[in-house]
Amino acid sequence: MRNLQMAIAPALAAAALLMLPLQARADVSRFAGEYRGSVDIVRADGDIDPRDMSVKIQETREGFVVSWTATTEKDDGRKKTKSYEVEFVPSERNGVFAAAMTRNVFGHAVPLNPMEGEPFVWGRVTNGTLTVFSLFIHPNGDYEMQQYDRTLADGGLDLVYISRLNGEPKRRLETFLARQ
Fold this sequence. Notes:
Layout: H1 2-29, E1 33-42, E2 48-59, E3 64-73, E4 79-90, E5 96-99, E6 102-103, E7 109-110, E8 120-126, E9 129-137, E10 143-153, E11 156-165, E12 168-179
C-alpha cells in the first residue's frame, strides 16, 4: 500500500500543477467584459479635468488581456486619449500573472526590461480584485509605481488608481466603471 501511495503522489502533484493555470483563469473569468466610467481629476491649480475611462478584460488561451483607455478633454475642446494593452500569463505563483509584453528570441512572451526605461508589469487576483502593477525606473534612478485595483461590484467594477514616486503618494483616483 505504501508503494502505491508513493507511486500516486507524484502523479497527483503533477495534476495539481496542471490545473493551477485553469484555476487562475477561472478567477479571471469573473472580470471578463467591457466597462466604462468617468472621473474628475483635480489639477494642482484647482482646475478640474474630466476623464472618460474604459477597460476591457478578455480571457485568452493562456491567460488574459487588459486593455484600457483614458480620454481627457482640454480647455480648448481638444481630446487627448491614451490607450494601453497588456497580455498576462499565469506565473508559478497562484493568482499572480506575468506580463507578456514582448517576445524573446525563442518566441516566448516575456516582460519588458525596466532598466531600459520600459515598464515592468504584473498582475494578481485576490478576493474579487484584479490588480495591475507597473514599475517604471526613471533615468536618474527614481522609481514610480502605478497600481490599478479593479474590484468586482454590483453592475461593474470599482476602480482605484494609485501612483507613487519613490514610495510617496503622487495621485489617487477612484471611480465606478459600469459593465457594458
